[in-house]
User: Which sequence fits this backbone?
């Protein structure tokens, strides 16, 4: 029997590559912007690329914010990807102070333009980087349960999540000495700053683990 997954289509990027990755992992994928479909979903995925304000407006204009919050409160598996992860938090400083979904305490801030050595580095942070276990985090029984620390995944982002609570920090990466949050968790709500659908075998293993939650 195929696992069913509902992917939210709210007008912000990379929807079809995400759908194909989930289908490759054996999922029955339903792409939707329907409140009813979100309310009845088994598993929910919020993908996204681009600006925080545009993402939140895409959800707001379709009246999807409250249904998403209700889904998360029901403790069903929920995954935010890239911008979708950032919107899980309380707020973002991108283009002024912007309100997020508030599912995980914290904020989204610009990645510093220099490494710890003071030298300028490329923004956005783009390309492959290694996943590190966050301090005090455990990957057992999470979407990373079959992932070896040090495995590489694919990032494209200029802003980074800063969880208020260490307990919500699941994985990090190191960008020229800057420790950047790569994944978050709160109960059955997960977020990946990287793109699992573009991260080869490692990304597909993460998607499979999400489907098996």
Assistant:
């Amino acid at each position: 029997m195929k696992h069913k997954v509902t992917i939210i289509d709210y007008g912000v990027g990379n929807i079809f590559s995400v759908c194909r990755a989930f289908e490759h992992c054996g999922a029955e994928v339903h792409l939707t912007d329907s409140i009813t479909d979100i309310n009845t979903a088994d598993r929910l995925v919020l993908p996204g690329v681009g600006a925080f304000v545009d993402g939140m407006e895409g959800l707001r204009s379709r009246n999807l914010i409250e249904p998403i919050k209700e889904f998360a409160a029901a403790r069903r598996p929920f995954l935010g990807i890239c911008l979708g992860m950032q919107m899980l938090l309380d707020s973002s400083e991108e283009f002024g102070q912007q309100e997020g979904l508030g599912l995980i305490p914290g904020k989204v801030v610009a990645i510093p333009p220099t490494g710890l050595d003071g030298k300028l580095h490329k923004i956005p942070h783009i390309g492959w980087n290694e996943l590190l276990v966050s301090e005090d985090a455990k990957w057992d029984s999470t979407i990373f349960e079959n992932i070896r620390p040090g495995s590489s995944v694919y990032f494209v982002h200029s802003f980074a999540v800063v969880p208020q609570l260490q307990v919500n920090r699941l994985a990090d990466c190191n960008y020229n000495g800057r420790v950047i949050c790569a994944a978050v968790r709160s109960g059955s709500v997960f977020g990946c700053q990287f793109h699992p659908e573009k991260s080869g075998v490692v990304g597909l293993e993460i998607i499979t683990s999400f489907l098996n939650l």
